[in-house]
Specification:
CATH architecture of the largest domain: Alpha-Beta Barrel
Keywords: 4Fe-4S, Cytoplasm, Iron, Iron-sulfur, Metal-binding, Oxidoreductase, Porphyrin biosynthesis, S-adenosyl-L-methionine
Shape: globular
Main location: cytoplasm
GO molecular function, one term: metal ion binding
CATH topology of the largest domain: TIM Barrel
Low-confidence stretches: 1-15
Strand content: 15-25%
GO cellular component, one term: cytoplasm
Mean pLDDT: 91
CATH superfamily of the largest domain: Aldolase class I
Protein name: Coproporphyrinogen-III oxidase
Number of strands: 20
CATH class of the largest domain: Alpha Beta
Number of domains: 2
Structural class: alpha/beta
Distance between the termini: 16 Å
Number of helices: 17
Oligomer: single chain
């Protein structure tokens, strides 16, 4: 496979994308996805709740806006590839008791973080948020409205993950009336053979109907999720899926790599390893997918994400204000993150904290009037500096020395002497360039951005860890 530039752009901050298979093979080790730094594997397994309370107090004093995340774990169907924290059940009556507990937790967090701070970003994830019946959705959002300062302006970013199989005629109008203005649809693949192999039967017409109704109602930045590396996928079959998706014309696309880890995720034991595409086929699928999406007018945001040039993600990246958190890329860099529900992770400027993964244990903590936090980490100044640097690289694909000095009152070359020395091989391989003022990720380096970021990761200094997925 030859190394060919496939994207020309008039934006100087968005370089061409180049596929170099030799470099991919050299740098395609395992590594974090950097939805946080330090990453979750560095969390203290016995994090004191008192530390979170102090972090929330510092957050409250800062008066920054808030992002509100809710983990809704219920799914009516088991998708065999899924590695999320979920509860498989057909019993919709489980939803209301869970939501009542979420609201009890929200009342505690509202007091800690401050009820009057504007919630400019809100997200329901899961699981399957649309598992909730209409009256339960309304009850949850009404409760949030009493506890937090929910926004109604056009600049709010209120999003929800949607399984098109769990949508009836009331679902989208209800979500719209509740204030949601952005949705993400799980698709994964439109091929019936692939769908059957992963136990997710979802005809293309079903997905299209939901997307079209969402557009009619006024939802913006509509995202579709795809997964490559699933059973029975081939470069040819995935190309057909991609054509179907391009015809639907979503504003954003997430194209994730499937990591087959049946020892860690029991549902994956139902996927036969010999039905999966080979590593070479997966590379070909990814290469073809990037080429096709760029050709169709999408911009490569980074990692697995693509967006139309006029989408807020693409605009934010061009303007140097893209951010990354546990929900992926976002335009709301200024928010502290209040997270509710089982396994949810919250964030302030100097701490991360995570709720218990175990649903009965989370329920017991909330029922006793306590927070359910079990893990977390307090960030040192060095952690915060490295988080900022990794954020600049993974979001803007550049690191400006002068900006670093202005933000941190440090000299980049002195602070990162060892890291810049270790970066020399990547400069030689043209993954990144250094003109003395700016470190600029090069066309061949965009796909390998996780490898570049690892250079600045103090916890990965000894090399790759098997606890992470492969970079490509």
């Amino acid at each position: 496979m030859t190394s060919t530039p496939v994207l020309k752009t008039t934006e100087s901050t968005l370089p061409e994308f180049i596929w170099d298979e030799a470099l991919i093979r050299r740098y395609d080790l395992s590594g974090p996805r950097y939805t946080s730094y330090p990453t979750a594997v560095e969390f203290n397994q016995n994090y004191p709740v008192e530390d979170m309370v102090r972090a929330a107090a510092r957050s409250k004093a800062s008066d920054r806006p808030l992002s509100l995340y809710t983990h809704l774990p219920f799914c009516a169907h088991l998708c065999y590839y899924c590695a999320c924290n979920k509860v498989i059940t057909k019993k919709r009556d489980k939803a209301m008791p869970y939501v009542e507990r979420v609201l009890k937790e929200a009342a505690i967090q509202s007091r800690l973080f401050g009820a009057d701070r504007p919630v400019t970003q809100l997200h329901w994830g899961g699981g399957t948020p649309t598992f909730l019946p209409k009256d339960v959705m309304e009850h949850l959002m009404a409760g949030y409205g009493e506890l937090f300062n929910l926004q109604t302006g056009d600049d709010r970013d209120y999003s929800v993950e949607i399984d098109p199989r769990e949508v009836d005629q009331d679902t989208l109008p209800t979500l719209w009336d509740l204030g949601f203005n952005r949705i993400s649809l799980g698709v994964q693949d439109v091929n019936p053979k692939v769908q059957k192999a992963v136990n997710r039967i979802q005809p293309r017409e079903m997905t299209e109907a939901v997307l079209n109704e969402a557009r009619r109602l006024g939802f913006r930045s509509i995202n579709l999720d795809l997964i490559y590396g699933l059973p029975h996928q081939t470069p040819e079959s995935f190309a057909e899926t991609l054509e179907a998706v391009i015809e639907m014309s979503p504003d954003r696309l997430s194209v994730f790599s499937y990591a087959h880890l049946p020892d860690r995720f029991y549902p994956q034991t139902r996927i036969l390893a010999d039905t999966l595409p080979t590593p070479q086929q997966k590379l070909t699928i990814l290469h073809n997918t990037i080429n096709r999406l760029l050709d169709a007018g999408y911009e490569y945001i980074g990692m697995d994400h693509f967006a139309k040039p006029d989408d807020s993600l693409a605009v934010a990246q061009r303007e140097g204000r893209l951010h990354r958190n546990f929900q992926g890329y976002t335009t709301h860099s200024e928010c502290d993150l209040v997270s509710l529900g089982v396994s949810a992770i919250g964030q302030t400027d100097d701490a991360y904290f995570q709720n218990n993964h175990d649903l009965p244990a989370w329920e017991a903590a909330i029922d006793s009037g306590q927070l359910a936090i079990t893990k977390g980490v307090n960030l040192t100044r060095d952690d915060r500096i490295r988080r900022w640097v990794i954020g600049q690289l993974i979001c803007q694909f550049r690191l400006d020395r002068q900006m670093f000095t202005e933000v941190w009152q440090e000299d980049l070359d002195r602070y990162f002497t060892d890291e810049l020395s270790r970066l020399k091989s990547m400069i030689k391989d043209e993954l990144i360039a250094d003109d003395g003022n700016v470190l600029q990720v090069q066309p061949a380096g965009r796909l390998l951005i996780r490898a570049i970021c690892q250079i600045f990761d103090l916890y990965r200094k000894e090399g790759a860890s098997k606890r992470f997925s492969r970079i490509i």
